[in-house]
Amino acid sequence: MEEGHIDVASLSGGLDLQATVESGQSYLWDRADGQMYEREAASGGDAWYWTTVRVDGEPVIVQARQTDGRLEWKSTIDAEPILRELLGLGDDLVAIRRTATDDAVVEEAYDAYWGMRIVRDPVFPTLISFICSAQMRVGRIHGMQQALRREFGDAVTFDGETYHAFPTPEALAAATEGELRDLSLGYRAPYVRRTAEMVATGEADPADATGREYEAAREFLTQFVGVGEKVADCVLLFSLGYLEAVPLDTWIRTTIEEYYPDCERGNYAETSRAIRAALGGEYAGYTQTYLFHYLRSGGRDH
Predict the structure, then answer these.
(1) Would 216 disulfide with which of 6, 212, 249, 257, CB 3.0-4.6 Å?
(2) Is the pLDDT of residue 302 over 80?
(3) Helices 268-278 & 229-238, crossing angle to 10 degrees?
């Protein structure tokens, strides 16, 4: 086993690990104590978290916690470069915040969860998790992903415990719709199965969205079954590094209605362009994520 740490003070804007992985960005991390997503106002905790990544095709466990000014980690490999990527530790939060509009609610959101970063989760698991996200609370979305791991993921032993990697496209494509429905996926089951089949057979690869102009990348992702513009934006923002993406979910539409009514243009594409401009353009997805977590967690009594 390898262990190490990253000095949080060395990161521009610091780090709030709990807010980063428990803010509705990611459903691919879990807590060792089983309390993932039990608190909506998640921030500042020191719990151990774990996730899986694939290195040369093989699943690897990465564990991390934030304590005493350090991000500590444990893995079977040198996990520091992996964590720097997964947790967006190279993002210059101070510079990013300067690009945001100086509206009072935006300032409150940044102050409340300062150090929260945009994740860069692996793309196929991200795609599946957000297909499952429609009309669901974050705790239930996370529970679905853990159920998929247990049922269809490879078992991985680490530090005396058994974990399960996120299923491969091939494993989910081989699942029956009934098996997926048994995991409470409901009407999302055929979407998950068909999208997994598209990836497993080489019909389409979500990673191929990378490098395209933002709106073209969003359009590319909508070819996957169960993926509309909002889910595509989530994949772009929380996996592929398109930090301008602003997923127009219920919370953000409510935010637009209350704080940015001039941005409502009657359709997704035009409203998206308007709210991106209002929230700072290139890094609008960061401001959106702070607003989402702040308002969902009770900021301004929402």
Answers:
(1) 212
(2) no
(3) 40
* 301: region left, alpha or beta (phi > 0 left; psi from -120 to 50 alpha): left
Q: What is the mean pLDDT of the chain?
A: 95
Candidate list 230, 276, 293, 296, residue with the active-site label: 230
Cβ atoms 63, 48 nearer than 8 A: yes
pLDDT confidence of residue 300: 63
Would you call 230 a catalytic residue per the annotation?
yes
Return the amino acid letter for 215: E
Whole-number pLDDT of residue 250: 84
**What secondary structure does DSSP assign to 5-42, as a single string?**
EEEGGGSTT---HHHHHSSSS-SS-EETTS-TTS-TT-
CB contact at 8 A, 296 and 109: no
Burial 58-85 (b: 16+ CB within 10 A, else e): ebbbbbbbbeeebbbbbbbeebbebbeb
